[in-house]
Fold this sequence. Notes:
Elements: H1 9-22, H2 31-46, H3 50-63, H4 68-80, H5 84-97, H6 102-114, H7 118-131, H8 136-148, H9 152-165, H10 170-182, H11 186-199, H12 204-216, H13 220-233, H14 238-251, H15 254-267, H16 272-284, H17 288-301, H18 306-318, H19 322-335, H20 340-352, H21 356-369, H22 374-386, H23 390-403, H24 408-423
Helix pairs in contact: 1-2, 1-4, 2-3, 3-4, 4-5, 4-6, 5-6, 6-7, 6-8, 7-8, 8-9, 8-10, 9-10, 10-11, 10-12, 11-12, 12-13, 13-14, 14-15, 15-16, 16-17, 16-18, 17-18, 18-19, 18-20, 19-20, 20-21, 21-22, 22-23, 23-24
Amino acid sequence: MNKRRMSAKQSFWLAVLAAVLAGFWGCAVPQVQTDQLFTQAVILQSENKHEDAIAVYNKILALEPDNAEAYNNRGGIYHLQGKHVVAIGDYTKAIFLRRDYAEAYLNRGSAYDHRREYDLALTDLTRAIALNPKATLAYYNRALAFAHKDDFKRAIEDCDRAIQLSPEDPEVYGRRGFIYARMADGDRAIADFSKALALNPNLVEIYNNRGATYARQGQHDLAIADYTQALKLQPNNAGTFYNRGLAHARKGDLQRAIADFDQTIQLKPAHAKAYKNRGNAYQRDGKDDQAIADYSEAINLNPDDADAYFNRGGAYTHKKNYQSAVADYTRSIALNPGSVGAYNNRGQAYRKLEEYTLALADFSKVIEINPRGAKGYLNRGVIYYHKKLFRQVRADWELAAKLDPSGKTGDAARKGLEMLDQKGH
């Protein structure tokens, strides 16, 4: 799910406008000069000319080194640029100059949250609320910091308070919906996302978040509808194409899934997961060569993805290229040593290569990891059969039949036992 972090932008504008309207005190330079510079900075900020705006704030601070508003506003630009450490330095200077500067505490708290320093974020946001108990944005941001610490009760309480203060603000409903989604309370999350969209039907992020929540509930048609609406509003969003591709794949609509992953890759060529999932779709469609090519690119982009090696191993197995399959399953196991599937599949590949001792070791590892799984005993029994160790065969198949009394694995084990009886083993 896309996470919407609250930037300092809204508070930035409040601070800037307040500064422009109120002016400054104790200045040693003509007031009009500072006001003109602030107006210039606001215009540059509105035009997203961040570096030019920073240069103007630098001029203001050269004229007035103790101008708290200028530090706060310059920090806001650094914050928007993702330069959170520099922003925190400016906010801290603003707070030093004005101990009761609620906006600066709010902004510094948001910057700390971006840096995942959640305790510091909570301290600042709580101070901002103490200074201004009606600051919706402070509750809004503190809710996210609480959610990041998995303190969902307090997070929801802050969202509730923000809604009381600003009942027509769709962003607040979106934030609460996001937290409900984190809590796996999909129905409440969807209700809040829907309320947010009723207030503002042009919120791309909310369509994406509601779509992701529908997808987790298995309501893939509704998820696809939300992702499609999000793409109407923002046609070049690679993440939305990717998520819609996943929804199409889960519905079994492989061609539409592949088309969406194509768009994802076109917009974001280094999207490793898009290659991997397009590979999955190709493999399900019986196109092993295309699948292998996509898994290989996914691995090139992210060499530590155990699933990509595992899936490519499956495609090699389907092509009867068992040596390559073994190599991929081996790499997958190195990255994820607890993978029952990788040990099982490598064991099957070793069986096809008649490397029975290696296969036996892998199926024994499957049993070690999952001793209540019938399939490990069934497969190990097959290897014992190839090695003509019939007593061990019977012991493993009897246990497989016992562990799976009514399933396919148990049925296979029982048929094997009948065969042993017929052959006198």
